[in-house]
Amino acid sequence: MESVTKLCQGNTVHVDALWGQEYNERRCLQRYESGKEHTNVMKGNSYYARRIHSLLGVIPLSMFIISHMLTNFAAVEGGPERFNNAVNLINSMPLIWVLELGVIFLPLLFHGIYGLYIAYQSNSNIGQFSYGRNWAFTLQRITGVITFIFIVWHVYQTRFQVAIGEVTHEELGGVMHLISTNNLFFVLYTIGVLAAVFHFANGMWAFLVSWGVTVGPRAQRISSYVWMVVFVVVSAMFLLSLAAFRGDEFNEAAAALDLIRHV
């Protein structure tokens, strides 16, 4: 009980910083004493499972978003030629499939499935508390589900099609043109991109709190500003990339891809 009391000290504490929940001291102790505290801060198995879950989200999602952001933004900077060069550069790396499977896709799969389990078990605090972080907690769950579905869908449309020989790396620009010029897909991609970037940025804020990197309200406030800027900048780069794929420069690649499919 002493450790719980220490955990709940102060006007506002982060009982489960990974998910952005904030409790005041009195409510935190009441919920623990009444047996309604579901954060499992005293249960080792859940604690370590969530630590692994956070690591297997931050590392692979960071790599996935950064690599896609830089590769796709090449379409903005130099059209199809620059984009194809960026794609070929990544795929020329030694053991790229092993790296993607072992460091990105499998960890993301665990993070996504376990995240869905946590989201299913969790309860929203928006009706009980007015703190901004509780809104972030709810949005983190919602965007986590959207991100998981979006990444699976995107990988199926691109990477998986390359793996089964339906398209080549050089034809991915045409694939993205067909996707982005479909108005329904464009809207869904926009939602998916914004959800993924928010989940990444808010998750990084929470990761730094839960791992003791940003300690104290001032550090956490500054960190929130930093990750807000990251969210805006990265989102803008992705949306500009989607807009670039809609351009006439990629129409020729899409036309060639469509011709190949009908041969």
Quick take:
By secondary structure, this protein is mainly α. Helix content is 75%, strand content 3%. The protein has helices spanning 2-7, 25-33, 44-91, 96-121, 132-157, 159-163, 172-181, 183-210, 217-245, 251-261; strands at 13-16, 21-23.
Characterization of this structure:
This protein has helices at residues 2-7, 25-33, 44-91, 96-121, 132-157, 159-163, 172-181, 183-210, 217-245, 251-261, and strands spanning 13-16, 21-23. It has a single domain (47-261), classed as 3 helical TM bundles of succinate and fumarate reductases (Up-down Bundle). Helix 3 (44-91) packs across helix 8 and helix 5 crosses helix 8 (183-210). It has 263 residues and is mainly α. It is globular. The model is unreliable at 1-44 (pLDDT under 50). The protein has a two-stranded antiparallel sheet.
Question: What keywords describe this structure?
Answer:
263 residues, globular, mainly alpha, 3 helical TM bundles of succinate and fumarate reductases
Radius of gyration (Å): 21 Å
Straight-line N-to-C gap = 71 Å
Q: SS-based structural class?
A: mainly alpha
Uncertain segments of ≥5 residues (pLDDT<50)? 1-44
> How many structural domains in the coordinates?
1
- Within CATH, the superfamily carries the name Fumarate reductase/succinate dehydrogenase, transmembrane subunit
| Overall 3D form | globular
Instruction: Give the helix proportion (percent range).
Output: over 70%
Give the mean pLDDT: 79
